[in-house]
């Protein structure tokens, strides 16, 4: 913020926003998010103590070379009828760079790639209809699915059918995991459970492991003191484009907005301030917060939390339960965003 920035008298509120997202925007936004806009295979730094990271990088470079080579030669349509298209699944813990690698693959393939989260694709089907969605994506060389969900059986079956249709039309696929309970195995996704959920694709997907530690925790100091609500309000008032809401009001509002619209909820927002931060008790409320944190992280929107830090959001039971991988990923990302928010002070 510069000295010439005019401070708003009253920061805006996320709860006052009810975004409408037309289908055209859903299609146009099937690109890697802002946080990964400049990432590439060259900017990924494999940890030498975890060789699977280099192996994953090499494999995805190979996939990109195969797809871009086929496009340059003009033989893409003939080749994709002759042999099954590549289908890779990045399996690993949070903070090891799976999304970085997936975004790098999409960037390498270029305009022929579609990139979105699981919930964005299911919402696209809801907006366009199943067959129009297939037609809209069938012309792509590659479809990338970040945060593949197994939370909702209906959505999982829908996505399995969509991926089968696209693979049958020769579209290459790449996905990362987002797990459900009992499928974690050492804190990671159990590949066999994923493959069972998409039975028709089980012989096409190649599971690529990405082991390692959460790089965000290696880079951050997460024991910073909590902020008082008054300090958060005062700071938000000095940042143009800031919003501020009590946590209770924010989570109530999120229940009225489809998760696929949480990104649009943040249009033009430069800082999200939340007061009265404390544990959320209900699982559905906590999972909606996870989606919001993911969209904040995608868009590099700093946060300020008053009353308690990120570690206070989820209960011990949640952090030890079936959705623990989601919650720990959200905490890792939220700590990074809170650090950026504290830097504004």
Please describe the structure with a list of short key phrases separated by commas or semicolons:
single chain, 345 residues, three-stranded parallel beta sheet, 46% helix, globular, disordered N terminus, ATP-binding, cell division, nucleotide-binding
Summarize the structure in words.
Helix content is 46%, strand content 12%. With 345 residues, the chain is of the alpha/beta class. The protein has two domains: 14-20 and 216-343, no CATH class; 48-212, P-loop containing nucleotide triphosphate hydrolases (Rossmann fold). The strands form two sheets. It has a five-stranded parallel beta sheet, sandwiched between helices. It has a three-stranded parallel beta sheet with strand order 6-7-8. Helix 2 packs parallel to helix 4 (98-109), helix 5 packs across helix 6 and helix 13 crosses helix 15. It starts with 22 loop residues before the first helix and ends with a helix. InterPro entries: ATPase_AFG1-like, P-loop_NTPase. This is Cell division protein ZapE.
